[in-house]
Design goal:
- The protein contains five helices and five strands; from the N terminus they run ββαβαββααα.
- β1 and β2 form a beta hairpin.
- The chain has two domains: about 90 residues, no CATH class; about 50 residues, no CATH class.
- The mean pLDDT is about 85.
- The termini are far apart.
- The chain is an alpha+beta fold.
- It is elongated, with a radius of gyration of 23 Å.
- It has a five-stranded antiparallel β-sheet.
C-alpha cells in the first residue's frame, strides 16, 4: 500500500469490467495505466466482436490520501461472501463492487450495500464548528454549571440540519440525542 498523499499525474485506478462470455460476473482489477489500455491488454487476441464492457473506472485513493489496490477490494468482497470464480472474477453486481470500494475508501465496514459516500458542505461544516465551539465553551464556563446549553441553527430549507446535527453528535461523542423537526406546509417542497 502506497502512502503518497499527492496523486501522481496518472493516479492508480480500480476498474471493473464485464465480459459477455461470463454472464453475471465482473473482473475487478487495478492499474497505473489507463483502464482502457489495461483491459485491452488482457485481450491480446482479437475476438470477432469486442466482448467486454468497462463498467467502473475510479481513482484508487482513500479519504486520507493513501492509495489502495484491487486486493483490498477483493478482501471486502470475499468477506461479504461474494462468490469468487478464478483470479479476479467475481459473481456480483456493479453495486456490490461500488459498495466494497466505499468501504475501502472510508475504512468503515458497512453491512448494507452502500454505494455513495458524502460529507458536509462548507456551510454545514461551519455550522458544526460553531456549535462545537459553543458547547465546549459553555461547559468550561463555571457560571453555567447548573444550566442547560441551547443552540439554534436558523438555517434555510434544504440545509440538511438533521444530517449536520448527526455529524455534530458524532464529533462531540454524544450517545443520546433528540432531534425535533418542523415540516411546514410548503408547496413544491
Amino acid at each position: 500500500m502506497s502512502q503518497l498523499l499527492f496523486p501522481p499525474l496518472n493516479p492508480p485506478k480500480i476498474y471493473a469490467y464485464s465480459d459477455s462470455r461470463f454472464t453475471g460476473c465482473l473482473k475487478v482489477g487495478y492499474t497505473s495505466k489507463s483502464v482502457q489500455e489495461r483491459v485491452a491488454a488482457q485481450y491480446p487476441v482479437n475476438l470477432p466482436a469486442q466482448s467486454y464492457t468497462i463498467e467502473l473506472d475510479e481513482i484508487a485513493m482513500r479519504e486520507d490520501g493513501s492509495f489502495f489496490t484491487d486486493h483490498d477490494v477483493h478482501g471486502v468482497l470475499s468477506r461479504k461472501q461474494v462468490k469468487r470464480l478464478e483470479g479476479e472474477w467475481f459473481e456480483c453486481s456493479l453495486e456490490a463492487v461500488k459498495a466494497a470500494i466505499v468501504e475501502v475508501k472510508t475504512d468503515k465496514r458497512h453491512e448494507d450495500t452502500r454505494t455513495l459516500n458524502f460529507g458536509l458542505r462548507p456551510e454545514q461544516s461551519a455550522a458544526v464548528a460553531k456549535a462545537m465551539a459553543y458547547f465546549k465553551g459553555f461547559k468550561q464556563d463555571k457560571e453555567n454549571k447548573d444550566k442547560t446549553p441551547h443552540f439554534l441553527w436558523n438555517a434555510k430549507m434544504r440545509f440538511s440540519k438533521t444530517f449536520a446535527t448527526y455529524q455534530l453528535a458524532k464529533k462531540m461523542g454524544w450517545t443520546k440525542i433528540l432531534i425535533l423537526t418542523f415540516k411546514p406546509a410548503v408547496q413544491n417542497a
